[in-house]
Amino acid sequence: MTDLRIGVVGFGNRGSLAREAHRPGSGSRVVAVYDPAERARKEASAAFPDAVVTATPVELLAAGIDAVMVLTPDHLHAAAAIPALEAGVAVFCEKPVAIALDDCDRILETARRTGSRLYVGHNMRHMPVITLMRELISDGRVGEVKAIWCRHFVGNGGDYYFKDWHADRSRSVGLLLQKGVHDLDIIHWLAGGYSTRVSGVGALAVYGAIDDRRDHSAERMDEWFSLNNWPPTATTGLNPIVDVEDISQVNLVLDNGVLGSYQQCHFTPDYWRNYTVIGTEGRLENLGDTPGSEIRLWNRRHGTAAPPDETYLVPAGEHGAAGGHGAADAQMITEFVAFAQDGAPTLTSPIAARQAVAAALQATASIRADGGLLPVPLLDPELITYFDAGQPA
Questions:
Q1: Distance (Å, whole) CA 137 – CA 258
Q2: For 50-70, what is the mean pLDDT?
Q3: How far apart are alpha carbons 227 and 216 in whole angstroms?
Q4: Mean pLDDT score of the chain, rounded to an integer?
Q5: Which of the four pLDDT bands, split at 50, 70 and 90, describes residue 324?
Q6: Which pLDDT does position 226 carry in this prediction?
Q7: Residue 354 near residue 104, CB atoms below 8 Å
Q8: Is 90 exceeded by the pLDDT of residue 306?
Q9: Can you say how many angstroms the Cα of residue 90 is from the centroid of all Cα atoms in its chain?
Q10: Which residue intervals define the domain Gfo/Idh/MocA-like oxidoreductase N-terminal in the entry (predicted)?
Q11: What pLDDT, in 10s, does the model give residues 83-133?
Q12: pLDDT confidence of residue 77
């Protein structure tokens, strides 16, 4: 099979995905990189010596590419994805699709109008802990799902999200979108439905009071990240603008009657996700979210807290435990390449990606208002029909 020729837009902190996609002779190779930053271009030239590395997007699109990977900061996704779709190439757009719902819908509409294939990088759909939980749900081990709760302990949140553009709501909206869109998508996927109404509360409880600020825009995360920043109140070198919540709690009402909740905290001592799925015949819960962790199932009556009735170990991914997100990144890239080349089916969905953004945006709006229940804006039914039928239909 001829390698898929990939162009990359943005070679910053998510440049690891471009490196993962560079598999010369094995299905895909990076042949062009566009980034306006000189440092990023130098790093791209070192990573891909045979690639065209440019400061102009026009030169990228003229490099004979078959696909584009959009790995820019979130607020730039639409500006990069739409011209690539217009050029007729397949597009990998890192999640979230965009930070404004109008931009999300414009991206989907452009993909439908041009027939160009669109893939959104929701890598958690490939995480072994999630795929195993979904398999157990599909097998009916908890009966009919009625509730899904997710607690997200973001132990390194101060360093990961409050020292760069993520902390500035004009560029990220908030971490309920940038970070939580992962989990909202998974709640929808496990529940088999989408949120129709959402409400939330949240606060900037810790990091807003820290006045040690510094501009890290010329740096990479590994140049400022440290696990030694403890307690969170002692963190230094935050972004000059910090106006996003560091703790939030959201309630969700899905279109199939399932109730969901999502909690996110950026100053916990530990870093992992805990999902609880409650059905008419049992309950699932994961303890840890990496390969070797446990998924516990209770499906018999107990008078009090009890050991699980069954326990499942989270397996390593298809590519082993190596790579980002428990090897989910590698599996996601493999799926994207097959999809871009011949339209192979995917676990991800542009419709699901848009619905997760819509839920996150409305939940954030609720938090910043009075915490009331807000409707999730509907998507054009013709877009739903188009993407559900495959690309192009």
A1: 14
A2: 96
A3: 18
A4: 95
A5: low
A6: 87
A7: yes
A8: yes
A9: 19
A10: 4-122
A11: 999 999 999 999 999 999 999 999 999 999 999 999 999 999 999 999 999
A12: 97
Tens digit of each residue's pLDDT (9 = 90 or more) over 165-186: 999 999 999 999 999 999 999 9
- State the pLDDT at residue 391: 85
Q: How far is CA 125 from CA 79, 150, 153, 265, 352, in A?
A: 26, 15, 19, 22, 11
According to DSSP, the residues that pair with 254 across neighbouring strands are 195
The reply to whether CATH 3.30.200.20 applies to domain 125-322+348-375 is no
Euclidean distance between CA atoms 117 and 91, whole angstroms: 6
CATH class of the structural domain 4-122+380-388: alpha beta
Measured in degrees and rounded to the nearest 5, phi and psi for residue 70 equal -95, 105
Residue spans of the domains in the chain: they are 4-122+380-388, 125-322+348-375
Partners of 201 in the β-ladder: 249
Give the span between the Cα atoms of 18 and 293, in whole angstroms. 28
pLDDT of 278 higher than 80: yes
CB 255 within 8 A of CB 98: no
pLDDT band for 281, please (50, 70, 90 cuts): very high
Write phi, then psi, for 209 (nearest 5 degrees). Answer: -85, -5
**pLDDT recorded at residue 28:** 98
The 3-class secondary structure across the chain, one letter per residue, is: CCCEEEEEECCCCCHHHHHHHCECCCCEEEEEEECCCHHHHHHHHHHCCCCEEECCHHHHHCCCCCEEEECCCHHHHHHHHHHHHHCCCEEEEECCCCCCHHHHHHHHHHHHHHCCCEEEECHHHHCHHHHHHHHHHHCCCCCCEEEEEEEEECCCHHHHHCCCHHHCHHHHCCHHHHCHHHHHHHHHHHHCCCEEEEEEEEECCCHHHCCCECCCCCCCHHHCCCCCCCCHHHCCCECCCCCCCCEEEEEEEECCCCEEEEEEECCCCCCEEEEEEEECCEEEEEECCCCCCEEEEECCCCCCCCCCCEEEECCCECCECCCCCCCHHHHHHHHHHHHHHHCCCCCCCHHHHHHHHHHHHHHHHHHCCCCCCEECCCCCHHHHHHHHCCCCC
